[in-house]
Amino acid sequence: MIFRNRGVTDQTDQPQLNRGNGRTFVALAVAAAIPLLLLSGWVATLMAQQQRDLNRNAAVASATRVAERVASDIAAQVAVLQAEAASATLDEPDLATFYAEAERLKRAHPLWETVELATPDGAQVVNLLRTLDEILGPTADRKSFDAVVATRHAVVGGIGPVGLISGKRLVALRTPVIRNGELRYVLSVGLATDAVSSILRDAGAPEGWVGTIVDADGNTIARTRAEAEELGQPANAALREAIRRKPQGFYTGSTLEGSNVEVVYRTLKDTGGWSVHFGMPVEALNAPVSRSYLLLGSGSALSIGLALALVGLVGRDMAQRRAGERARFALALRASEEQGAVAAEAAELGTLRWDMGRGKVIASPRAAQLLAWRAQVTEDSETEAHSGDVIEAVHAEDRARLTEALHRSAAGDAILDVEFRVHGLGQEPRWVRLNGRAPRLDEDAPSGLVYGVVSDIEPRKRAEAERLELLRRLGEAQENEQRRIARELHDQVGQTVTGLSLGLKGLERLLDGSDAPAEAGRRVRWLQTLAGEIGRDIHRAAVDLRPTALDDLGLREAIATLLREWGLRHAIRSDLEFLGEPARLPAATESAIYRIVQEALTNVLKHARAGTVSVSVEHRLNEIQVIIEDDGVGFDPEAVGQPLPDGPLAKPPLGLSGIRERLTLLGGTLTLESSAGVGTTLFVRIPVPEAT
Fold first, then answer.
1. Per the confidence metrics, is the pTM higher than 0.90?
2. What are phi and psi of 168, to 5 degrees?
């Protein structure tokens, strides 16, 4: 049927093409050269305007990219600062050790001018620009400092006054140091303005543009063509008015160099109101359009009469051609829809169209069946339902996730890919997957439509659940077996070794009271020493298999004992910090956390060559967070998976498969941060049900 329709279309279009060619020949013969000049000017004008629009769109994309890059860089600096605020050196505090850590971080972050630690009243106690024994005085930029004290949250400040110590105008990034619910200090990083300008220049701004970053008060922080006297000064009136009007858009102004520019600006996320502005020279932007207007005006003056006739003929011909193209496109679209429907039916998939504006869902019978609609389903027609009825058939725990994914996809922010459970009358919940995207009918506004494909993933979900259950049982069996072996080592083999030591002690006394050779006494004492070492080895092996402190005293004492014995055995300094309520956790969670710390310490010993290891365990409202940090050699995560010079792929220096396997069973996550020469940090998060 598709080929027959296509043939009919070709036959009906042939006379139309012939007529169009005839009209074009007549128009060219009548208009001759002068109407062609007018048409060329008109086309040139359209192309110039399109080029200007493309340049503006490119400016918007570039400004957005630069804004995201700058915001990301600032967020990364704040994240490092927050991690340092959690350092164990600030618990006591140990300012000398903290000073050394801060110097190491500053060397790893070239954009940092200084690191400052101040008490809540603003008095500096540490500043890397001075030694610890010097009197430092109050901190600069009290506005951002007071904001941290008031909110107890990290703050990105604007450009501050000239510091008494630095002698420069710095941009302060500040975060609170809280211990036991009390604000102990405010930890700050001072970024030099030329450092912020380097971030702006390195973010990929187009050549020849003038870029500026201003803070929430409208003061200039950085500029791609920055001069020292310009930074910290209020920006021009057009810039400040644009920021007050709305967070992003366009405005026209002039640069400090005196050139007129059209500026695109974006407000940076999570920076306390910073905004980035890029100015495009108006002359360069509008020059092609101005030339095209001149050409069009000249052509109009020469051929006003014949041009009208030519435009009429060409417009009619274009309209008919466009109508023919629309007809062929509609035919091809119907054929494509038929082929897609056949393919979906063959693959046991369902198709749907979700209209967010009307609140309607139109779907194929298979999609309605998979989504368990409470509606009449026919075999040869589409089924329509209200979106509320469709959402009602979704499992209550999955409705919010599905709704959020639909809105994000309809807004054009993401491709739709969500898994959820549906339940019909008298049926067990069943897993399905919805994939799709929103068509972009208008570049300026979302269509509110989502086209999707529904598939049945219940067998895969069931297989995944069975696999996790099997892994959980294997883990429990392994823990039980290790507990049994540890008990036998401690109770049976350990007692036997103890008896052997007592027997050797008695034999030594008998030899001392007899005329036995001195060599026999030395041999007995050597055997006593050997028996003692065997007993300690057996005790250590039993603790490694299953520490009794984990069952008797809980996770805190078990990890403390592990770190203490491990540090003494391998001469590595270790720190332990517990935050939150000291409540007992489920046995499986405690065992997993202990084993994760144990495996991480093994990896540090094998690969890191570290001098200090820090472990932090924080019990939050609905989760446990474990942070394991070392100051070893680290590695480059981006190099993992890349081929080495001799052929094989590079592998990470940490064997993390065991940790990830344990976290999979508990629904936890693992995040790894590492850089060559600055150590490695593991962030482990495990959800824990709220105690009732």
1. no
2. -130, 165
Helix and strand totals (H; E) in the chain: 17, 21
Supply angle C-alpha 225, 229, 235, rounded to 5. Answer: 70
Partners of 261 in beta bridges: 253, 281
Side-chain half-sphere exposure of 511, counting CA atoms within 13 A = 16
Cα distances from 357 to residues 328, 351, 363, 602, in angstroms, run 30, 19, 16, 57
Distance CA 328, CA 6 (A): 8
How far is residue 606's CA from residue 263's CA, in Å, rounded to a whole number? 55
| Separation between Cα atoms, residue 645 and residue 648, nearest integer Å | 8
User: In one letter, which amino acid is 420?
Assistant: F
Q: How many alpha carbons lie under 13 Å from residue 601 in its C-beta half-sphere?
A: 26
The residue count of the chain comes to: 692
Q: Phi and psi for 640 in degrees, rounded to 5?
A: -70, 135
Residue 573's pLDDT is 93
Residue listed under structure tokens 């399109």 = 50
pLDDT digits (tens, 9 = 90+) for 675-686: 888 889 999 999
Q: What is the DSSP letter of 631?
A: -
Nearest to 208 by CA among 151, 131, 284: 284
* DSSP-derived secondary structure for 228-269: TTTTTSBPPHHHHHHHHH-SEEEEEEE-TTS-EEEEEEEEPT
| Residue 52 CB-half CA count within 13 A | 18
Q: What is the CA radius of gyration of the chain?
A: 37
Q: State pLDDT tens for residues 441-465.
A: 656 666 678 888 888 887 777 776 6
Residue located via tokens 């057996």 = 538
Amino acid at 632: G
How far apart, in whole angstroms, are the C-alpha atoms of residue 309 and residue 313?
Answer: 6
Paired tokens of 425? 């009358």
Amino acid at site 301: A
Residue 193, both tokens: 């303005």
Beta bridge partners of 674: 680
- Give the pairing type, strands 275-281 and 210-214: antiparallel
pLDDT-derived band at 613, boundaries 50, 70, 90: very high
If you ran DSSP here, which 8-state letter would residue 605 be given? I
